[in-house]
Every structure is written in C-alpha cells, then in structure tokens.
Amino acid sequence: MEKPQKCFIDYNLLMLLLMLVLPVTLVGQDQVVSSQVVDETGAGIAYVAIGIPAKQFGTNTFEDGSFTFPFKKGYLKDSLLISAIGYERKKLSYQEFIEQQPSKIVLKTNPIALPAITIRSSRLEEVRLGVKRKGSRNNFSLGSPLKGVTVAMLFDQIDKPIRIKEISVSVGKSNMDSLQLRCRIFAKHPDTGLPGEDLLQQTLIQTATQKRAILRFSLQEEFWLDQDFYVGFEWVMTKQQFAQLENARERYPINFLSDIYATYPDLQPNINENKRVHFRDSTNKVVKEVVLSREQTEVLRARAAAAPQLQFKILMKGQRTYYGLPLTQSWNRIPHEALISLLVQQEP
Fold first, then answer.
1. Most distant CA pair in the chain, distance
2. Mean pLDDT of all residues in the chain?
3. Which of 210, 221, 248, 303 has fewest C-beta within 10 Å?
4. What is the pLDDT of residues 195-216, one digit of tens each?
5. For residues 66 and 133, is the Cβ–Cβ distance under 8 A?
6. What average pLDDT does range 308-326 have in this prediction?
C-alpha cells in the first residue's frame, strides 16, 4: 500500500492564482466597484450619500441610483454608510462590500414623523424669513459634489409655529449648461448646534439652465416647524458631469495642494478668487497665507475651466452659514451669510 504523498503549497503561486480569479476591480488602488442603490420595488434611488464617515470620504449615486466606489486598501477595516432622505440608513462592512461587489443595495423606506403642532388661529399671514438687508456680495465655490458637500444656513429664534411654503436661493455662477440643486431641511443638533437629522421627507430638486439664477423650491405638503432649523443646498451631479470631472482630474493634477495643506494641519484651508491659500483658525480668522506660484495658478484655472463647478452668492457679513458633509457630521463655518429666503405662513 502506497503512503499518501505530502502536499506542499507554493504560497507565492497561490497568491498569484487568487489575484487572477479575483475581479480586476480589486487589483489596483485606483480601481472601483460599481453598484446601484434601489428601493424595495427595485427602482433606483437618485443622489444617495455613500461614504466612510471615519475617513470623511464618499460619493453620491447618479440619477438612476448607480454609483462607483474606489477600492482603498487602507479602508478595509472601516464601515460603509448609505443614507437617503426618507429611507433607513444602512451600514455595511467596507471589506465585505469590496469582496462581494453587490449589484444592488436595497434601502427600506423610513417615513419621518414630526411632532404635532397646534395652530390656534385659522387666520394666517405670509412673511419672509432670511436675508433681508443688503450687503456686498461674494461667491463661494461648492466644489465637487461627489462627497455630498452641503451649504446650510441657520434659521433661529423661531418663537411661533411656521409653515414653510417656498425656499429660494441665489446661485452665483456656473460653467455648466445646466445644474441640479437639492434642498434639505435639517434639525439643529441639541448638543453641537450644527445641522443634524433631516426633517423633510419630500425630495426637492430644481434645475437651472442659466449661469446665474434664483432657484425656488415649493413644498407640496404642509410642513410646520416650531424649532430652530437649517436650510441646506447640495449640487447633485449627472453621469455626464462626472465624466467631465474625471477628465479634468487626469489632465490637470493638483497634487501640490495636498503638500500645501499639510503645512498647517490644524488649520482649515481655502483658496480665494486670487488663487491664494488662506488658513483659518476656529474663529474663521485668516492666520496664514500661501501665495501659489504662477504655474500652480495656471493649473488651477485650467482645471476650473475644464471641470464642472458651481458657486453660491454669499453676503460678506454674517455668521450663520456652514458647509460640510451631513453624512459624517463634519461642518465648517463660512464667515459669510448665504442669500436664502423662506416664504412662510404663521399666526399674526
């Protein structure tokens, strides 16, 4: 009787075979996984926020619910959070998402229940809230919408119930033929005072076809509030605009900005219209300034011209406007005030 032969494994060969059978999307750092977020009927959900909160890294779905997510080896121990207005949040292991590559991710509906508000008078008057005074204007660039960046302004001192009928916002300028803007209403977080949970279940999206425009969002349902809240706006990107953005990234790399930002890691950087990097402290005061070289400025301007971009009109005075990522609850204050107004009804 022959003795069984021992089996010797060449681990280098084994790893090579594993790499050959794994999908090609997992081989390189720059590869992506494609999927689609759908509701319980199988319909795609547009503009869902998908990200890794621990890394402040993410993307949004396109108009058909599809999305691509990059493979990052250093994120394998993190969780992937998926969030959409009117749906339950879903948390996935990023490693399982990469390994399984699901073709569809299903979200369950989650209606938002607002507390009941008692109105004592049947006679209501219409008033406008928001920016009422004039001031010098500036443009604030929202940048790429792929991380779900939002501009939000606080509406406080709500001393009586109000019914929001219409929301208006002034868009500064755009280099796109059309842009889609989504409006959201956030509760004021009781601990941080920052934008918190979504209060509005209705999806409000308007399209502008002009370079400068005032967009108006009408609420179809009765929506009453008796607490301080934030009104926020997000630029949602189409597949065509995404392809345009990716092309601009490849043609005009701006890796030099990462090196500049790293020089003052405790400060918040931003680039002004004169292409200078301003570093601000926690009070938004400019404490450091870096002047970009002529070559760096030319690269930034070329990329800005080639990639989709959007700017809001901002007043030069005020301290109630923020920008940030609602998914990760990472917000920064803008030392200005957005041009936003609300048409509301309230008791006289």
1. 101
2. 82
3. 221
4. 998 888 888 999 888 888 899 9
5. no
6. 85
C-alpha distances (whole Å) from 133 to each of 138, 139, 172, 243, 339 are 15, 17, 18, 40, 10
Nearest alpha carbon to residue 218 among 74, 78, 343, 312? 343
The percent of the chain in helix, strand and coil, each rounded to the nearest 5, is 20, 40, 40
For the chain, helix (H) and strand (E) counts, in that order, are 5, 25
Sequence-ordered strand ranges (E) for 64-203:
66-70, 79-83, 90-93, 105-106, 125-130, 137-141, 150-155, 162-174, 179-188, 195-198
Residue 75 near residue 53 (C-beta atoms within 8 A)? no
52-88 confidence digits (pLDDT tens): 887 767 788 888 999 888 888 888 888 889 988 889 8
Right CATH number for 125-237+309-346 from 1.20.1510, 2.60.120, 3.40.50, 1.10.443? Answer: 2.60.120
Strands 32-38 and 105-106: parallel
Alpha-carbon gap, residue 155 to 14, rounded angstroms = 61
Which CATH superfamily does the domain covering 31-106 fall into?
Carboxypeptidase-like, regulatory domain (2.60.40.1120)
Among positive and negative, which fits the CA dihedral 241, 247, 251, 257?
positive
Q: What tokens does 218 get? A: 């009408």
Asked whether the domain spanning 125-237+309-346 has the same topology as the one spanning 31-106, the reply is no
pTM over 0.90: no
Domain definitions of the chain by residue range: 31-106, 125-237+309-346, 243-306
User: Which residues lie closer than 8 Å to 339 by C-beta, 6 or more apart?
Assistant: 131, 137, 169, 170, 312, 313, 314, 315
